[in-house]
């Protein structure tokens, strides 16, 4: 105030500063962050399975008692399929354990001390190495337990083959609170999903699929219907976009949608659309809508 006259410019400036501060403060509350004191560094670790495989894995400890994402990659891939997921999971203060499945990535040391890869695995048979990868997930859960992460804090997140394995593992282990299945199939190298979904129980599950791939989308309709019948439609959620085909095909926003869903899986369906269970038989043709190439899942090893 000068000579009894209010300096309106100064007052207005101070008022604007308060508004700006309040806006920035409010926005900061909406963005998950980790303080400097809680900055974490991922570690390379080894996991030994019940049947003697030595698995390579990458471990990021969660902040305090937050959940941990057990990341299970696609066939013919390795844990780096999740590299775009790592910073997003860290951003929310969650932890992750990304594993190279047996015969993939750096997990090539067999129980007898020799080395091999998935190229030598049979894709036939319900006791083949692909089905035995359930033991890789079991080994990862045991490792997490030994590092003070109980099973009820572990979210299984799988891509393609990993999605099938995640569904099967969660059906076996009722302590797992929820599952995220990216591009699951009826059958990937003899790892099946229909019966595991029937046994899944009343727990949340999120499935992601690309409608661009006709045969895969038809399979998704069957799996989605099976899951709704078994788990209850209130527990089954879905994200359907044009070109989802594996974990690395999801952009940053889609990854954040998945993480947000795990924070509150009781939210309404992520995507609203009219999905009816198809009664038509699943076509094994590779022809797809708009001439797009379908993505096979029952793959010969190369």
Describe this structure in words.
The protein has 302 residues and is of the alpha/beta class. The chain has a single domain (43-272), classed as 3-Layer(aba) Sandwich (Rossmann fold). The chain has helices at residues 8-30, 86-91, 129-132, 134-146, 161-172, 194-198, 214-231, 252-263, and strands at residues 43-48, 54-60, 68-72, 95-99, 154-159, 178-182, 187-188, 191-192, 205-210, 236-241. Strands 1-2-4-3-5-6-9-10 form an eight-stranded mixed sheet, with helices on both faces. Strands 7-8 form a two-stranded antiparallel sheet. A hairpin with a 2-residue loop joins strand 7 (187-188) and strand 8. It is globular. The model is unreliable at 1-31, 268-296 and 298-302 (pLDDT under 50).
Structural category is alpha/beta
Morphology call: globular
Biggest β-sheet: strands ordered side by side in the sheet: 1-2-4-3-5-6-9-10
Nearest-angstrom radius of gyration? 23 Å
Give the full name of the CATH homologous superfamily: Alpha/Beta hydrolase fold, catalytic domain
- What share of the residues does DSSP label as strand, in percent? 15-25%
Overall CATH class: Alpha Beta
Model regions low in confidence, pLDDT < 50 over at least 5 residues: 1-31, 268-296, 298-302
Oligomer: single chain
Q: What fold name goes in the CATH topology slot?
A: Rossmann fold
Mean pLDDT score, rounded?
A: 83
CATH architecture annotation name: 3-Layer(aba) Sandwich
Helical residue percent band: 25-40%
> What gap, in angstroms, lies between the N and C termini?
81 Å
Series of H and E elements = HEEEHEHHEHEEEHEHEH
Count of helical regions: 8
Largest sheet: 8 strands, mixed
Total domains, how many?
1
Give the number of DSSP strands: 10
